[in-house]
Amino acid sequence: MSTPATLSIRRPDDWHVHLRDGPMLAACAVHTARQFARGIIMPNLVPPVTRVDEAAAYRERIREAIPAGLAFEPLMTCYLTDDADPAELVRGKREGVWVAAKLYPAHATTNSAHGVTSMERISRALDGMEKAGMPLLVHGEVTDPDVDIFDREAVFLDKVLVPLLERHQGLKVVLEHITTRESVQFVEVHSGRLGGTITPHHLSYNRNAIFKGGIRPHFYCLPIAKREEHRLALRRAATSGHSAFFLGTDTAPHTADTKECACGCAGVFNAPVAMQVYAQVFAEERALDRLEAFASLNGPRFYGLPANEERITLQARPLEAPERVEVPGSNKSIVVFRPDTPVGWSFRAKDPSLRSG
Ligand code: DOR
Ligand code: ZN
Questions:
Q1: Lowest mean pLDDT among 102-116, 144-158, 276-290
Q2: Is ligand 1 within 6 A of the CB of residue 179?
Q3: CA 95–ligand 2 middle distance (angstroms)
């Protein structure tokens, strides 16, 4: 198949996005809304989003941060703590506020201090979710400091996810931002009730990139990028057309000063370049005809939602994107992800005033 000059697909959705709050939300929301029709909004704010009223208020703040002319629907999630209340989960789902709930093992990643310390503690909450048909979204890493950081996802599958799926047989689960060959195989085996999201950055680089020529904090995220063999497995999964794999950018903005320091934050801000990078990966894998399934069809099918009717167009010309996005009311900025290898795809928002490369 030769590479076409343009590619038109149904408007995609982002099934894993950190929009933050306050000035960061004001800086970042537009970049996600330019590309995506809907987003599963991560609840790891400070304090975390654990109550229905907090989620409804946060959804309003997100809607207010989206510029006129862009349609974007925030799909809200509940941050599970050891005290998660099954009644609150079910009520929020019934009232159309929660779409899913998020499991952060305590201390696994950014703002996860209030996360879950043992799966026993949330088994009643998971029973309620199972009955209500509410998916569980999982940050799949163990937190045991004795487990090597590069093994934490694979160990999580055996130690936590296998018993979880066994105990809650009707629960739908998304293993988010998968980074290993083991996770690809695990999702394939359990597909139907288990989905896996894949980020643009984990498709673009392996762990060497974090250390190329010196330590590069803007390539640091969690789960951390793994060896090349794992990146190749992720590329095969994403471009396979298999319905269990779908798009989740895990765009996770932090201001540059909080990444370029002695103990830098984890997270890659990829929202302005997400579809361009995915298109580049699919073009390299000669699978552009499967980009729509990954980006626009498989996710809605998993969540039982309609696919978007609107379309977007990607163009085969070199990526034009800002190097940084400014945070309003501060002298701070967020560095935009850019792979080390060329990206030959651009995206144009319909409204010229909202355009980015
Ligand atoms: O790199 C990450 N950043 N991984 C996560 O799981 C959380 C995220 C964030 O919120 O910054
Ligand atoms: Zn995330």
A1: 102-116
A2: no
A3: 25
Cα distances (Å, whole numbers) of residue 289 to 1, 8, 247: 9, 10, 15
Q: In this predicted model, what pLDDT tens digit does every residue of 229-252 receive, in sequence order?
A: 999 999 999 999 999 999 999 999
Q: Is the CB of 152 under 6 A from ligand 1?
A: no
| Domain boundaries of the chain, sorted by first residue | 6-354
Note if the pTM is more than 0.90.
yes
Cβ pair 251, 177 in contact under 8 A: no
Q: What is the pLDDT of residues 297-354, one digit of tens each?
A: 999 999 999 999 999 999 999 999 999 999 999 999 999 999 999 999 999 766 444 4
With a 6 A CB cut-off, is 77 part of the ligand 1 pocket?
Answer: no
Ligand 1 atom showing the smallest separation from residue 44 Cα: 10
Answer yes or no: is the C-beta of 218 below 6 A from any ligand 1 atom.
no
- Closest-lying ligand to the alpha carbon of 252? 1
The DSSP annotation for 244-308 comes to TEEE---B----HHHHSSTTPPP-B--GGGHHHHHHHHHHHTT-GGGHHIIIIIHHHHHHT-PPP
Which residues form the catalytic set? 250
6-354: CATH, from 3.40.50.720, 3.20.20.140, 3.10.350.10, 3.20.20.150: 3.20.20.140
Which mutation among 156, 222, 226 tests ligand 1's pocket best, with the greatest number of atoms within 8 A of CB?
A: 222
